[in-house]
Amino acid sequence: MLRSHLVCSTRWSLQRSSYYKSSARLARLVCFIVRTAQLSHTLRAGAQSLCQSVRQLFVSSILSSRLSGSLCSNPHSARSQLRYSALAFTTRYHFIYSLADMKTKKQLLNEKTIDALIHEGKEIRILNNTSDNSPDDVGVGNLPDFVAWRTKVLHCFSTSLGTDNHYYMGLKSSLPIYSTLLNVIQALSILQAVRQDLEAGHFEQVQPQHDVIGTLVMLCERFDKVVKQLRKRHGNKPTLDVENEYDVQDLLHALLMVHFDDIRPEEWTPSYAGTSSRIDFFLQEHDVMIEVKKTRSNLKNRETGDQLAIDIERYSTHPFCKLLFCFVYDPDGYIANPTGFENSFNRPRKDLDVKVMVRPS
């Protein structure tokens, strides 16, 4: 509760400062950070550099100009600089608080990687900078160099820190698909903050991130072997057989619990064509939904495909589903061409990634 209050208070102060440029509020903010740093050993190491950033970026560029009687020779530039600084500062401040939540993330970031991303971003800014237009009016979203740079930046941070990290979320919000030069400058401010935190040692060496898709693929590949092994019981004891779709769900649920902590069965999905249904499993931490099918005499190639098509349309509107993983257990070979069946669904989509596996194939 205390953590949320501190972060929200800091964000509110900075957002208000970016609009009203109040010297009193900025002064209180510096004192607030110093007091907050005394509550956390993690924050203590970064408090001095953060306060120095506030003084340099805010006080010198804004307060001094107010004392001289005018905001700046270029008011738009002053407002933009304050906005970039606020974004970078709040992202860094929130990131320090989230260090304790990064134990499962893979650390691949280093000074060389960040420097390369900053260099490419600066080249895009220089090549597209014009004195006639403000940065917010110069569109770069359709430039091949920008698209490649944006992809590299987001991929680097998502694989290194995860999509729930505040640096990644800050960069993603700063670099929408239809970006302007203003967005590039905002992202560069965040990358500069990351560079400073790397030098200050705020990043920890941590374990590799959970490979969700790889784990699910491995479980489905070996699922039929597990079923056959369960039929071999010692001492003529009753066998554990998988006869219907509910049996497949129960066994897969048990296997998922070996690799995932938060597994939510039977999650409600948005309505489609006037009806709604429940997803079999939802890995909320990873935004992955799992749908299970078992073929039978009245659920063969066509019927299974029709059901999956409806599921994909339904789950594409789910606010927390980024990947729909469909496991089709076909022990009796009702699906004649498993590879073709998978390929008909495993293709890029606008709102949802889909992975369909038919096993055994």
Structure explained in plain terms:
By secondary structure, the protein is α/β, with parallel strands linked by helices. It has 3 domains: 1-97; 102-209, no CATH class; 212-359, Trna Endonuclease, Chain: A, domain 1. The chain is 57% helix and 9% strand. The chain contains 12 helices and 5 strands. The chain has helices spanning 2-20, 23-37, 41-67, 75-97, 111-128, 144-161, 166-174, 181-200, 212-230, 245-259, 301-315, 338-343; strands at residues 264-268, 278-283, 288-294, 323-329, 353-359. It has a 5-stranded mixed beta sheet, with helices on both faces. Helix 2 packs antiparallel against helix 3 (41-67), helix 4 crosses helix 8 and helix 5 (111-128) packs antiparallel against helix 6 (144-161). The longest helix has 27 residues, at 41-67. It is elongated, with a radius of gyration of 26 Å. It starts with a helix and ends with a strand. Pfam families: DpnII-MboI.
What is the fold's blueprint, element by element?
Blueprint: H1 2-20, H2 23-37, H3 41-67, H4 75-97, H5 111-128, H6 144-161, H7 166-174, H8 181-200, H9 212-230, H10 245-259, E1 264-268, E2 278-283, E3 288-294, H11 301-315, E4 323-329, H12 338-343, E5 353-359
Parallel strand pairs: 3-4, 4-5
Antiparallel strand pairs: 1-2, 2-3
